[in-house]
Design goal:
This protein is of the alpha/beta class and 404 residues long. It has helices at residues 8-18, 51-54, 63-73, 88-99, 110-129, 150-154, 159-162, 180-186, 212-222, 275-278, 294-308, 311-328, 356-365, 388-402, and strands spanning 30-34, 37-40, 45-48, 103-107, 137-141, 172-175, 191-196, 226-230, 254-257, 269-273, 335-340, 345-349, 368-369, 371-373, 377-380. Helix 3 runs antiparallel to helix 11 (294-308), helix 4 runs parallel beside helix 11 (294-308) and helix 12 packs parallel to helix 14 (388-402).
Length: 404
């Protein structure tokens, strides 16, 4: 095809020209998608190995979810929470059941779920635990990623995320991820919660050391501190279980959920917890105009039903082993480390070969889309509908890129 006839270059140029540069996307312009595959404006096809940072766990345009969205669009899209709509109770009941909790509080973005968790933990601290007014503190982990609000970036340890956005919200203590002794030592009488990603996704799919999450659970219970698990990226089937915490039999006090909950169609997030914790919120103390809207609930209820079958978790476990085997075969052939749980992998490229960004650009030229993070790491998180052959294809393309 003659370069001038392609639509991609001008679309990339215009996107650059008219947006704030808060992202550095690969120069690919997608116009349609189905399942695990994307098509760009010039008709080229790509295997999606990012899945919208796990927002597309069920693939692009899953027929059940699209049908639910269409049907809801034709009936009712928004009421606000000033009134109750007919999709609300089913969603809340079924999500609470999936989580094994009494209650859910729906919001929209992941960051809002995190903010909600922080507010609930603080209020619980003052009203139930009896923490000194204004002194609540929350323990978080080094290398965390919980979103982009001013409060959340206040306890980020990533300079890009945090620098020049102060003044910062106080009340957070950062400890090394995976270090139970440090975490326990940081707890004092005003500690209301430990907030953790069970697997640190943005940090490069960093897995918890064995026994860490059960240890956090034990310490939290012993010291009357809430364990708040940010499962926004790790949850809802990604790791082969409904929740990443399940791999070690851990049940947190609050689950923070987002991304895949909206089926890749609408932003839906939620906090799930028991009545003794989530019940501290009273009318007027928290909310969102769009949180729990009819369209969101209609789609998310179907998401919960897809997960309730266990099929996606099984696929993730089985295909994840294939992905692991393929990637481990590249150790010493351009990869220096591989971390996999379910269909979620972080691979570290030998930095003397190329950066993660360069690897992703070369993968793109070979029809595979993935995302780098922190220098020489790539995350692979394909939709859970990907097939075994497609996984082999992705691994083969990565092998070719590494072989130069
Ligand atoms: C673990 C985790 N928490 C929170 C968020 C923030 O979610 P959102 O971008 O929907 O605000 C993300 C997003 O990547 C995440 O990975």
């Amino acid at each position: 095809m003659i370069e001038d006839m392609l639509r991609t270059p001008s679309a990339v140029r215009d996107a650059e020209r008219y947006t704030a540069h808060n992202y550095h996307p690969l120069p690919v312009v997608i116009s349609s998608a189905e399942g695990a595959w994307l098509t760009d404006v010039d008709g080229r096809r790509y295997l999606d190995c990012l899945a919208g940072y796990s927002a597309l766990n069920f693939g692009h345009r899953h027929p059940t979810l699209i049908r639910a969205a269409h049907e809801q669009l034709d009936r009712l899209t928004l009421t606000s929470r000033a009134f109750i709509h007919d999709q609300f109770a089913d969603f809340c009941r079924e999500l609470a059941a999936l989580c094994g909790k009494d209650l859910v509080l729906p919001m929209n973005t992941g960051a809002e779920a995190v903010e909600t968790g922080i507010k609930v933990a603080r209020k619980w601290g003052y009203q139930v635990k009896g923490v000194t007014p204004g002194q609540a503190n929350i323990i978080v982990a080094d290398g965390n990623f919980h979103g982009r609000t001013t409060t959340i970036v206040s306890f980020s340890t990533d300079d890009d995320a945090r620098a020049d956005f102060g003044p910062y919200t106080p009340g957070f203590t950062v400890v090394p991820y995976g270090d139970l002794t440090a975490l326990e030592a940081a707890i004092d009488e005003n500690t209301v919660a430990v907030l953790l990603e069970p697997i640190q996704g943005e940090q490069g799919v960093v897995l918890p050391p064995d026994g860490y999450l059960p240890g956090v659970r034990r310490v939290c219970t012993d010291r009357n501190v809430l364990f708040v698990a940010d499962e926004i990226q790790s949850g809802l089937g990604r790791t082969g279980r409904t929740f990443a915490c399940e791999h070690e039999g851990v049940v947190p006090d609050l689950y923070l959920l987002g991304k895949a909950l909206g089926g890749g169609i609408v932003p839906v997030s939620a906090v799930a917890g028991n009545a003794d914790v989530l019940g501290v919120l009273k009318p007027g103390q928290h909310g969102s105009t769009f949180g729990g809207n009819p369209l969101a609930c209609a789609v998310a209820t179907e998401v919960v039903r897809l997960l309730a079958t266990g099929d996606f978790q099984r696929r993730s476990t089985e295909l994840g082993e294939r992905l692991r085997a393929g990637l481990e075969g590249l150790l010493g052939k351009g990869l220096v480390a591989v971390r996999v749980r379910g269909l979620w992998a972080g691979v570290d490229i030998d930095p003397t070969l190329m950066t993660g960004r360069q690897a992703c650009e070369r993968l793109m030229e070979r029809g595979v889309l993935a995302k780098d993070t922190h220098g020489s790491t790539i995350r692979l998180a394909p939709p859970l509908v990907i097939t075994a052959d497609e996984i082999d294809h992705a691994v083969a393309q990565l092998a070719a890129v590494l072989a130069g």
